[in-house]
Every structure is written in structure tokens, then in C-alpha cells.
Task: inverse folding
């Protein structure tokens, strides 16, 4: 399997929502977009790939060094690094955005929960938001209005994904719900770790879901134009959040863990009209 096919296969199987949105990118940019998303997957899966935090930080340093080499005229042999290096050169992708994502992923190896809701939103912005800004650069859509919208969608997408994947995150040793929000709604760590439905859990999740939805409702971009493949995730996020609300904001309801049906069809009209 060649490198481009490997990246596409990883995104298709492990990040299928982003894969579907990438299908709406011009054919000449799609492979570079998928290489970028495959890089994000490598970082997102780091926590599960190691047995202890120190090894995870070593893994992140490997990626930090590998990205640095891409900007210094070389690229190590790796099925994601090679196509990513080509994308960096082709589109002049911003090094500081890669570094921001990698640095922020250090949080994944801290066993203690985030203290404040604002820290969770900042994490979402520095990971998924920054990834969306890199994706805009791949698509050649670097104007300010698209950047603001893409960052907002990235934050919302990360918060929505965290809610949908909460059970998995807890099972793998992470506790992503911020302490101040849990305390506000009377949700204890013990109750959270029990993986059982509770009113306190649902109220905590609802507050995060409202922030995710408001991020998208507040964005003003007019026609999405070239940025559509990045901004289309807002359509999916709204649908996931609507379904979540229909279950009383219970993140452990099995419905909320499933991908949406007919995702490509849901995106066709927004993609072709440019109205997202």
C-alpha cells in the first residue's frame, strides 16, 4: 500500500466523518487534506498506544522532531510523514499550527481532569481549531472570515466528539469533563467513572453541548466557497448535538456513539450552495 492510500484508509476507518467532508475537496487537494487528517489521528491515538505517560511524551517529541525536519529540508521515512511533508511544501503550511497541536496534546497524558471549562474550550481550539486552520491552508482559503469560522467549527467539533466519545475516554484513563462544571452540577468523579446515567452527568454534558452549538450559530461566513470541506463538519456537529438533545444529553446512550446515517447526502446541498 502506498503512503497516500495508507493515509486515506486510516482516515476512512478511524475518522470517517472527516473523511466524508474531505470528499468534497477538489481532487487536486484531497490527498493533502487526508494526509493532514492522518497526522491528527496519529496524535489523537497516542494516549492509547502507550502504557505510561512518559512514553506518550516521547511519542509526541518524535512527531515534534519529524515535523521540524519537514521544514528543514528533510522528512523521515513514515507513511504519514512523507505525504504530509509534500503537503507542507506544496501549500506553505504554517509550522506554528503543527507545533500548537502537538504541544496541546501533552494534556492527554495528564491523568488529572481539567480544572475549568475555559481550559476545555482552549484545548478544543488548539487541537481541532488549529487543524481546521491548516486544512484551510491546504484548500487555499486563508481569508480572515473563513479562519474565524473554521476555528469556531473546530472547537465545536472537538467538544461534540468529546461528548460522543466520553465512555471511551473514561475507559482509556482520561477524564475530560472540567472540574468546575462537574462541581456546579453535583457530578462526582466516582459517579462519572461508574459509566452510568445520572441527571448531574446530563446537565454537565448539556452545558458543553450548548457551547458547541453556540460556537457554530455565532459564526458568520456568508458563502463558504473553497472552505466548504472544512466548514461542512458544522452540519454534522449540529445533527449530532440535536440527536444528543433528543436523548436528554445522555452521552452513554448508544445512539450518541453511532455515526450519522446518510452523511454524504446530508452534506451535498450545503456543499453545493455554499450555505453552511
Result:
Amino acid at each position: 500500500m502506498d503512503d497516500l492510500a495508507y493515509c486515506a484508509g486510516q482516515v476512512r476507518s478511524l475518522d470517517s466523518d472527516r473523511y466524508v467532508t474531505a470528499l468534497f475537496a477538489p481532487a487536486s487537494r484531497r490527498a493533502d487534506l487526508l494526509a493532514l487528517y492522518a497526522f491528527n489521528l496519529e496524535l489523537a491515538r497516542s494516549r492509547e498506544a502507550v502504557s505510561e505517560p512518559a512514553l506518550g511524551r516521547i511519542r509526541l517529541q518524535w512527531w515534534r522532531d519529524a515535523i521540524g525536519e519537514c521544514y528543514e529540508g528533510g522528512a523521515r521515512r513514515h507513511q504519514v510523514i512523507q505525504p504530509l511533508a509534500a503537503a507542507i511544501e506544496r501549500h506553505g503550511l504554517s509550522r506554528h499550527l503543527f507545533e500548537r497541536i502537538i504541544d496541546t496534546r501533552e494534556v492527554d497524558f495528564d491523568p488529572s481532569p481539567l480544572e475549568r471549562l475555559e481550559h476545555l474550550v482552549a484545548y478544543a481550539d488548539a487541537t481541532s481549531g488549529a487543524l481546521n486552520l491548516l486544512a484551510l491552508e491546504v484548500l487555499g482559503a486563508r481569508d480572515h472570515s473563513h479562519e474565524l469560522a473554521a476555528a469556531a467549527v473546530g472547537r465545536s467539533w472537538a467538544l461534540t466528539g468529546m461528548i460522543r466519545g466520553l465512555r471511551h475516554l473514561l475507559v482509556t484513563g482520561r477524564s475530560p469533563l472540567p472540574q468546575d462544571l462537574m462541581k456546579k452540577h453535583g457530578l462526582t468523579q466516582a459517579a462519572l467513572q461508574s459509566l452510568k446515567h445520572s441527571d448531574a452527568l446530563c446537565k454537565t454534558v448539556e452545558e458543553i453541548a450548548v457551547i458547541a452549538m453556540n460556537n457554530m450559530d455565532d459564526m458568520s461566513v456568508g458563502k463558504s466557497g473553497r472552505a466548504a470541506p472544512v466548514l461542512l463538519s458544522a452540519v454534522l456537529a449540529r445533527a449530532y448535538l440535536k440527536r444528543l438533545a433528543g436523548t436528554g444529553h445522555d452521552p452513554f446512550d448508544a445512539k450518541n456513539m453511532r455515526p450519522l446515517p446518510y452523511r454524504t447526502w446530508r452534506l451535498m446541498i450545503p456543499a453545493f450552495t455554499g450555505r453552511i
